[in-house]
Specification:
It is built from 23 helices and 5 strands. The chain is mainly α and 424 residues long.
Length: 424
């Protein structure tokens, strides 16, 4: 405001205008510039060549900007004065995120019903001149000068139509090359989800892809959201018509809900999967492991975890000792495993084969979780039994990701209990 008050003896002259600016922009420097620019464009602030001073009427400024309670309203008012084509391009660009590729915007623009005689580059240049966007050094990407500009662009006109963002997402999904679609997967899925609420297996699959990608980035809340939306897009006969996709969505959903600690949703998803009689134990395994993970890692109920896994294994045909016979069977399995390990040829360890039997894969995964819980529950005999059984399964059926842990544990047990350093 000092620039507006230059060479004026009354240093408080701009105080009133400064107060209005502060109320309308909350003191944000970028928005102050936008506000002053708007006042000059509306004729509420002008330079008087006769007086060689800036002149304004506080009353007129106050009244004219009364309806603009925030900066989005101010930006929106400025945007509405633009040519229709420029408005539309800005709104399509706003759907592409805080930063977007010019080539992607061109793809959307070429498939909309809003053609303009000026090309995308010319329209972007005008937005750049208006301080709405800025180009990267390579000129291939643009970004908004402020997130409020992007918000304002999506708050009026064409952008408020119910299927606007969905139509943009659909264009991107159908027209982008596979690599670019993968790079923009979250943006595309978010746009499609804003307009798609009915059954659609194709979009359910798309949400599953986004959920997996979010999980890989440890964005568990986001992954949970995509899993939930994907489940909602499945048809009523989902298990019969799209069983593989349905299982994947529910399994990933359970995993994410466990990570987030949402007990109610865990139960809903788990019960849905476990109630499917046509699924094999191996297909239900991720649900069992997720519930065991919650019991042990979240609730710290290690004894309850052991009992839960023992029950699951027993019902599935796997033998697990319990009660007073546990010490006897654990030591018996230990001696048997040590003998088997001694007789195993070196070629097995030098050129190990991979475990392929689903039954053994299932058993060793359950035993691995049993071993973990036994350690923290200080159940030494179940610890010994779990480690030895994992080694036995490996020697019989081949190696799995759990085999290294099993052999290392057996080495520690042999050294500690049997004092057998040679076998170790």
């Amino acid at each position: 405001m000092a620039m507006l008050n230059m060479e004026d003896e009354d240093e408080t002259k701009t105080q009133g205008l400064a107060d209005i600016c502060c109320r309308r922009t909350l003191g944000n420097p970028f928005f102050v510039i936008e506000f002053i620019t708007m006042l000059e464009m509306e004729g509420l602030l002008s330079f008087n060549l006769g007086l060689l001073k800036w002149v304004w009427s506080e009353k007129e400024v106050e009244e004219a900007t009364m309806s603009a309670s925030n900066v989005v309203d101010l930006l929106q008012a400025r945007m509405k004065k633009m040519p229709a084509g420029l408005q539309h391009l800005m709104q399509y660009a706003a759907c592409l995120g805080s930063e977007f590729k010019v080539s992607v915007l061109e793809t959307v623009w070429a498939h909309t019903q809003q053609p303009d005689r000026l090309g995308v580059s010319s329209l972007l240049r005008r937005l750049e001149e208006g301080n709405f966007i800025e180009r990267s050094s390579s000129k291939n990407t643009c970004r908004w000068m402020h997130d409020k500009i992007q918000e304002a662009a999506l708050s009026f006109g064409l952008a408020t139509e119910s299927d606007f963002e969905f139509s943009v997402g659909l264009i991107l999904y159908q027209k982008l090359p596979a690599r670019e679609l993968e790079d923009m997967l979250f943006d595309v899925v978010n746009l499609i989800n804003k307009g798609q609420s009915s059954t659609n297996v194709e979009f359910a699959t798309l949400n599953y892809r986004a959920a997996k990608k979010a999980r890989e980035a440890s964005a568990f809340q986001t992954s949970s959201m995509y899993s939930s939306i994907g489940i909602g897009l499945l048809p009523a006969d989902k298990w019969e018509s799209h069983g593989d996709l349905t299982l994947k969505l529910y399994t990933l959903g359970v995993e994410m809900e466990v990570a987030l600690g949402n007990d109610a949703t865990i139960e809903v998803y788990s019960n849905e999967v476990l109630s499917q009689n046509d699924l094999t134990l191996f297909e239900k395994l991720p649900i069992f492991l997720a519930k065991a993970h919650k019991l042990s890692n979240v609730d710290r109920q290690y004894k309850e975890t052991i009992e839960y896994l023992r029950r699951i294994m027993s019902e599935s045909g796997y033998w697990v000792p319990r009660g007073v016979m546990l010490p006897f069977h654990s030591l018996r399995v230990l001696r048997r495993t040590v003998k088997a390990a001694k007789k195993t040829p070196k070629s097995f360890f030098e050129r190990p084969r991979l475990m392929k039997d689903p039954k053994h894969k299932t058993e060793i995964l359950l035993l691995s979780r049993m071993f973990y819980s036994s350690y923290f529950a200080k159940n030494q005999f179940m610890l010994v039994f779990s480690a030895c059984k994992m080694v036995e399964i490996t020697l019989e059926s081949g190696v799995s990701p759990m085999s290294g842990q099993a052999f290392a544990s057996l080495a520690a047990i042999v050294n500690g209990l049997l004092q057998d350093r040679k076998t170790r």
